[in-house]
Design a protein that fits this description.
single chain, mainly beta, four-stranded antiparallel sheet
């Protein structure tokens, strides 16, 4: 069982940056694949980024490649999302997610099927 709590959201101007953090509970946090999803007003929830249990592999949605960076610190039970060059279309609630992932999987494994979700943190970007 994993509990996830996000922080770091806020209101920023276009072109600005934010760093989202997610604190996880559980002694086996390092066994989990972690990721971020987002949901904009009136839109479906979408995959943003994911990272393997070791941090050695990362995956991104095409819409955020080059601007977003996911990282993790297993010693701190934490995962982060650095967001640069924010655009109004990045406005959304961002969710931290986790699922068991101790092993090596194909890229598709990381895009869906997460069992644990945080409450979300709001990111709003003004133009």
């Amino acid at each position: 069982q994993v509990q996830l709590v996000e922080s770091g959201g806020g209101l920023v101007q276009a072109g600005g940056s934010l760093r989202l953090s997610c604190a996880g509970s559980g002694r086996t946090f390092s066994s989990y694949a972690l990721g971020w999803f987002r949901q904009a007003p009136g839109k479906e929830r979408e995959f943003v980024a994911a990272i393997s249990w070791s941090g050695g592999s990362t995956y991104y949605a095409d819409s955020v490649k080059g601007r977003f960076t996911i990282s993790r610190d297993n010693a701190k039970n934490a995962v982060y999302l650095q967001i640069n060059s924010l655009q109004p279309e990045d406005t959304a609630v961002y969710y931290c997610v986790a699922k068991l992932g101790l092993g090596y999987f194909s890229q598709d494994y990381y895009y869906t099927g997460y069992d644990y979700w945080g409450q979300g943190t709001q990111v709003s970007v003004s133009s």
